[in-house]
Amino acid sequence: MPSGKAILKMTAVAGIAALTVQPLPSLAQNFAFNSVSIEGNARIEDETILSYLGVAQGEAVTAAQLNDAGQRIRATGLFENVEIIPQGSQLVIRVTEFPTVFRINFEGNSRLKDDDLFATIRSTERRIYSPTDVEQDVADITAAYAASGRINAVVTPRIIRLPDNRVNLVFEISENGVTEIERIGFAGNRTFSDRRLRNVLTTKQAGALRTFIGRDTYSPERLEFDKQVLTDFYQSRGFPDFIVQDVAVQLTSERDAFVVTYNVEEGQRYSIGGVSVTSELNDVVDLAAFNDVIRTRNGDTYSPVSIENDISRLEDLATRLGMQFVQVEPRIVRNEANQTLDLTFALVRGERIFVERIDIEGNNTTLDRVVRQQFRVVEGDPFNPRAIRQAAERIRSLGFFANAAVNTRQGSAPDQVVVDVDVVEAPTGSLSFGANYNTDDGFGLLASFRQSNFLGRGQSLNLSFSTAESNKYFQLSFAEPYLLGRNLRFGLDTNYVITNNEGADYDTETFTFKPSLGFAVSERGNLQTYVQTRYSDITNAVNGEVAPETFADSEEDGRWTQSVGYTYSFDSRRDGLDEETGYKLRFGQEFGFGDTQFVKTTASAGATTSVLNDALTLTATVEGGYLHYNKGDSSIVDRFFLRGSQMRGFSLYGMGPRYYDDSGATTVNDSLGGNAYAVARLEAEFPLGLPEEYGISGGAFVDYGSLWDPGFDCSGANYYYCDFTPRTIAGVSIFWDTPIGPLRFNFTEALDVQEFDETKGFDVTISTSF
After folding, report:
1. Angle at the Cα of 725 (from 720 to 728), degrees rounded to 5?
2. Considering only CA atoms, which of 54, 62, 2 is closest in space to residue 32?
3. Strands (E), 426-470
4. What is the domain-level CATH number for residue 560?
5. Which of 390, 438, 507, 673 would be 540's cystine partner, CB 3.0–4.6 Å?
6. Is 474 part of any domain?
7. Mean pLDDT throughout 407-424?
8. Residues 100, 104, 107, 111: is their CA dihedral positive or negative?
9. Is 220 in the same domain as 333?
10. Residue 456 burial (10 A CB sphere; 0-12, 13-18, 19+)
11. Which residues in 266-325 belong to E strands, given as ranges?
């Protein structure tokens, strides 16, 4: 009987072995074998091969059954070649085993490191070579490059034969260039422009200048996230029916960029009509008390976040009143005619389910208690799905984890629930060296170390120093957000600052030590209390070159002051949403005691709103401060000076009370600072019509304010502007979002200034690290 020969074929790309089985004379012929001879196997036992053969000794089999037996042996993936050869009463099985992978190497890769690629592939050193695994490895490596924006990457596997049936496996990689997103467009949007919606997305387009300006790469996961971001944006602005129908992603004809189009359906815009609370409980309920905690009002723009916050307030009140297992269901009735939504919060009885335990996994560094602190429930408490969802959001917002999944499952009994928290930790520390520049302090080198999850305890530690020309400093800050397991933030701040004032003929040296405690006093309000010890000294002052009061202060030894104080802050935007309107308030007082007794009061209020469908952003800010001494007098290091961020168009020492004397050999022009200041700022930011990939927008502003009262009698001939003397500055701004950070260029024009003021028509702020 003539015998055939199987031929092994491995392609360079797929590396897939092909099998041919010995041709048999006739499919109708039957065979029976008294013995089986196996040849070529070294690692695989005879018994293993026979088990796959499936033919018993002496059993009559057809040629087709022998072919099937050969295919079963091949399907194990253990052999490059399999031959089934009938020789009379003996069946010969000749096999060639796949080699062992000795080494795996990657060549041509630079964007993705070897460690990242090893984590991607299935093939393993010291294991049997598998063409199927190699084929999948090629697909996985290609997908990894596509996720990093290099969809044209080419991966070619090669094998290098070695003695003793071993091979080296080499993946040759041609990375090619990054495929940017050339354009992001929208279809179906009527209320908001494409430009405004692009500002909402985390994905950014590179535009026609993608060769020179890199913005973002294509990521399917990021597009999915952006769909939710768009939905949140529209719904928070009164569009409850908004949906993203689909996202079309196309390659350009050159295959070097993507075009992304979001097809959306906005729906109608709704506002809130009537708001009420009803109860479906058997208990007697004081509905007036529940109505009092609702913040949503008739006429408000519909926002699911506002409704969710009201539900939390209502359920918290029910818990405080001892009403267990009460849940709040929002019920909405549409009024299509006037496009309003009537909102009813229904108090209903929830299931009697308890939290059995909270299991946390994946936190190799972060302590369990850091995660547990984000839950408002503990083991044994009634189970509330909304409270669990809110805890999940708090865990994600910590910034400690690359991923955090919070799920529930049934516990040991039907009325018990186990909460599973699975986290993937992310880097939380950074060490940076860099440079900064601003027109107040000049150029300086800086270094900083930041750790937001110090020793896995959820604590923050920041250490930084700067060598700016006019302001050298060392700062150390530490914060524990949950002191003694309570919602108390403990902070410790210390800094040492040496100034080399180019705008004043003296230098200063200060040291501050400030422990503090902060806590929430309302949903969006916080109170910080602190104790402060401060040392200050005036140095290098020359008589006749500074004001007499400044020189007299410099002749005294450095001053130590002790004080206590508080700061209250309120931020309507603490939900983190890109809201149309928001405002911030801040009020603080510091009380000095000991040798110097004073009260230092500061306050600020700001509001921002977007108009013309968010195309124009308007901001208004007022701030002020007053320093009053009951014992002792203020020194120049204690008084207020207005920086460029507070009153644009002036140097750091360019406005306020001043001592000016040109009668001597040297002209003295000394800024005295003030015990009081007040500033109002109005600003508008708007697009300039430039391509968005530039990241450039424009602004216009008007600043009005004054700095006055140096704290001593300055009615003499050489003293100026000691009383309230307002100044007015107008200007335009250029905002530029660059890869090194946001830059702002201010061009100012003095509308109302005084003779000895020091103004500047241009300033820029830049900050970068490398």
Report:
1. 125
2. 62
3. 429-438, 442-454, 459-468
4. 2.40.160.50
5. 507
6. no
7. 93
8. positive
9. no
10. middle
11. 271-279
Locus of tokens 């935007």:
573
Among 755, 667, 708, 712, residue whose Cα is nearest residue 550: 712
Q: Please give the Cα distance from 28 to 67 (Å, whole number).
A: 13
Residues 224 and 281 in one domain: no
Beta-bridge mates of residue 402: none
Domain boundary among 425, 450, 479: 425
Residues 6+ positions from 282 with CB-CB distance below 8 Å: none
Give the residue among 316, 326, 317, 327 at the shortest CA–CA distance from 288. Answer: 317
**Do residues 607 and 739 both lie within one domain?**
yes
Is the pLDDT at 767 greater than 70? The verdict is: no
> Looking at the 3D structure of the chain, how many domains does it have?
6
C-alpha distances (whole Å) from 767 to each of 70, 404, 741 are: 70, 32, 7
DSSP letters for 24-47: -S-TT-EE--SEEEEES-SSS-HH
d(CA 137, CA 117): 9
Assigned domain for 702 exists: yes
Residue 454 lies in a domain: no
Same domain, 674 and 584: yes
The span from the CA of 696 to the CA of 128, in Å, is 57
Do residues 330 and 388 both lie within one domain?
A: no
Which domain CATH number covers 230? Answer: 3.10.20.310
State both tokens at 734: 């250029």
Q: Average of pLDDT values for 643-654?
A: 88
**Which strand (E) or helix (H) includes residue 195?**
helix 194-200
First-to-last alpha carbon distance for the chain, in angstroms, is 77
Q: Residues 578-637: pLDDT tens digits?
A: 556 788 999 999 999 988 899 999 999 999 998 888 889 999 999 999 999 999 888 888
Q: Tell me the torsion sign for CA atoms 39, 40, 44, 49.
A: negative
Structure tokens at 43: 């690692």
Helix axes 304-320, 385-397, angle to 10 degrees: 120
Q: How far is the C-alpha of 400 from the C-alpha of 427, rounded, in Å?
A: 7
**pLDDT of res. 653:** 86
Report which of residues 147 and 144 the model is more confident about: 144
Closest CA to 235 of 265, 203, 273, 277: 265
**Which residues of 481-573 form beta strands (DSSP E)?**
489-500, 507-520, 525-539, 559-571
User: Under a CB-based contact definition with an 8 Å cutoff, are residues 521 and 527 in contact?
Assistant: yes
Output the average pLDDT for the chain: 86
Query: Structure tokens of 480?
Result: 């524990």
Domain that holds residue 681: 501-769
Choose one of 119, 152, 174: the last residue of a domain: 174
* 307 and 417 inside one domain: no
pLDDT of residue 17: 33
Q: Which helix (H) or strand (E) holds 601?
A: strand 597-611
Buried b (16+ CB within 10 A) or exposed e, 716-752: eeebbbbeebebebbbebeeeeeeeeebeebebebee
Token pair, residue 163, equals: 């003695």
Check whether residue 26 and residue 142 sit in a common domain. Answer: no
- Looking at the fold, whether 169 and 192 belong to one and the same domain comes out as no
- pLDDT digits over 534-573, tens only? 999 998 888 888 888 888 888 888 899 999 999 999 988 6
10 vs 554: CA distance, rounded Å: 87
Percent of the chain with pLDDT over 70: 91
CB atoms within 10 A of CB 656: 29
Are the C-beta atoms of residues 269 and 339 closer than 8 Å to each other? yes
Distance CA 657, CA 689 (A): 43
* 316 vs 326: CA distance, rounded Å: 10
Q: pLDDT by residue (tens digit) across 348-374?
A: 998 899 999 999 999 999 999 999 999
Residue at 492 is within a domain = no
Rounded distance between C-alpha atoms, residue 201 and residue 195, angstroms: 10
Minimal CA–CA distance to 95: which of 111, 112, 107, 77? 77
* Pair of tokens at residue 60: 């009559």
Torsional sign, CA 236, 570, 534, 601: positive
